[in-house]
Each structure stands twice: as C-alpha cells, then as structure tokens.
Amino acid sequence: MSPLANSRRAVRILHLAFVVSWFLFVLVVVLVKPPVQPMQPLLPFIFALAALGSVSLGFVFRKARIDRPLEVLRNAPDNSQALIQWRSGNLTLFVLAETVTLMGLVLKFLGATWAVAGAFFFAGLFLTLLWTPRMDFPNA
Fold first, then answer.
1. Residue 33's CB: how many other CB atoms inside 10 A?
2. How many CA atoms lie within 13 A of 105 on its CB side?
C-alpha cells in the first residue's frame, strides 16, 4: 500500500475514533449523572469564549494546514511533506473539535445543566462531522 493510501486510511480511522469518543463522553455523563449545582454565571461564558477560540483557530488552521497541502497532493501525490502536513492538520482539527466537547464535559461535572453543557456537546459533534477529512486527491 502506498504512503498516500496508508495516510488516507489512518486519518479515516482517527476521525472515526474521535466520533466514537464523543458518544463515549455522553455515555460517561449519563452513567455518572453528575448533580446540577449552582455555579458562577461567568464560568460558562469563559468556556464559551475558549470554545469560540478553538473554533476560530480550527477554521484558520484548516486553510493553512489542510487546504494548501491538499492542493499540492492533487498535483504531486508523492509529496511526503504535504502528506505529513495534511495528516497533522486533520489530527489538529479533530483535537480542536474534541476540545469543545471536553469543555461541555467539564461544565457538566462542575454542575451545569444539560441546556448549558449540551450546547458544547452539540457544537463538538457538529465540528467533528463538519471537519470530516477532505480526501479528494488522486488515488494511489
């Protein structure tokens, strides 16, 4: 199997693992049932700002670390440097999306309601699915 095909397969598996982990985080909350407690109203706002930073960084990062290497790979599928950037860029996006989910998990364990924490969970899953790897380069 070529390095390009290996990378495609590895990134697909990683993406699937991040999607599955989202469901596992929800399962943990459902099984543990952390109690809803009063919390500082500023705390969810701070988490929301951090999540917004992760999302913004993800969109900027996608342009620089995925779209540009992808263009190179369309013209030169054997370019190992572009392939490394493409793989690491996808992994970074998965991590940034997962970070938003983890913020929801932390908020839930700090006592937030599902109305608050659920928004972070939803946004994390949405980003994980939105940032599905682009693999529209030549077959190898």
1. 8
2. 19
